[in-house]
Design goal:
By secondary structure, this protein is mainly alpha-helical. It has 8 helices and 3 strands. The longest helix has 31 residues.
């Protein structure tokens, strides 16, 4: 029984930092295991070593003739290993998922401390190795869940702007006309001497609907755009070497004030 290995809390011991097991007044010894894990999950990482030494000493005092550290270690290791496996097998959509993750993390810290005391290499047994692999798989699954969540959020802000088929040149014409816009003070609103920037922006962020391919979209070739962006006239940002045909100059831009 667990009570033979771990020191019960003294009656009326109301200390906040106790490492002993149980409540300070009255509690059923049949629930000792539940109280044991309640204490294990509550103590800080820096006190795990103190916990181990305190209960090891108690066990040895209670069993002066037949007690030894290996027996105590094996018992504690098996308890933690079993509980860890129980938690790892729980569904990630369990209503207590957050608490389960917190307890898994705490038990992992316990096993790391216990391994330092494992003179008998019990943690290298087949069962322990499987448990370690399960823990690693669990960690990878959690990482995958997090990455998928981040990807889903990212995709909400990432994507293409689709334009109707045949509207590439009207769109480019609008971008060219935007270069002639001025602020209220009469300064150029959009400042760039790299005309290729406009071509790259449209080619990268816009797609043209392909009516011949069941409404799928197709890439807008950058060379097609560059043809109409060459030879800008510094005195007239709209004028350039190759004008967009009049039939594609469908839209105008006007300032509201």
């Amino acid at each position: 029984m667990s009570i033979n290995y771990f020191k019960p809390r003294d009656r009326f011991d109301f200390s906040n930092d106790t490492l002993d097991i149980g409540n300070p007044i009255s509690w059923s010894r049949k629930d000792f295991l539940k109280h044991l894990f309640k204490r294990i999950f509550a103590i800080s990482e820096k006190r795990i070593e103190d916990f181990y030494q305190r209960h090891l000493n108690y066990y040895l005092e209670q069993h002066p003739d037949d007690g030894n550290e290996e027996t105590f270690f094996r018992y504690l290791w098996d308890l933690i290993d079993r509980q860890l496996n129980v938690l790892l097998l729980k569904d990630i959509y369990d209503k207590d998922h957050i608490r389960n993750e917190r307890e898994i993390k705490q038990l992992k810290k316990f096993t790391e401390v216990l391994i330092l005391h494992d003179q008998w290499n019990l943690h290298k047994s087949t069962e322990a190795a499987v448990a370690a692999q399960q823990l690693e798989i669990h960690a990878l699954n959690q990482e995958n869940i997090q990455l998928n969540a981040e990807l889903a959020e990212y995709r909400q802000w990432d994507g293409y702007i689709d334009i109707r088929e045949g509207q590439v040149l009207p769109l480019l014409d609008l971008f060219i006309k935007m270069q002639a816009l001025e602020t209220i003070e009469g300064d150029q609103l959009l400042i760039t001497h790299a005309q290729n920037t406009w071509a790259k922006m449209i080619s990268k962020y816009f797609r043209e609907v392909d009516n011949k391919n069941k409404g799928q979209t197709k890439e807008i070739k950058i060379e097609r755009l560059r043809y109409y962006l060459r030879g800008i006239d510094p005195q007239d940002p709209i004028k350039r070497e190759h004008d967009i045909p009049k039939k594609h100059q469908l839209y105008t831009i006007s300032r509201s004030i």
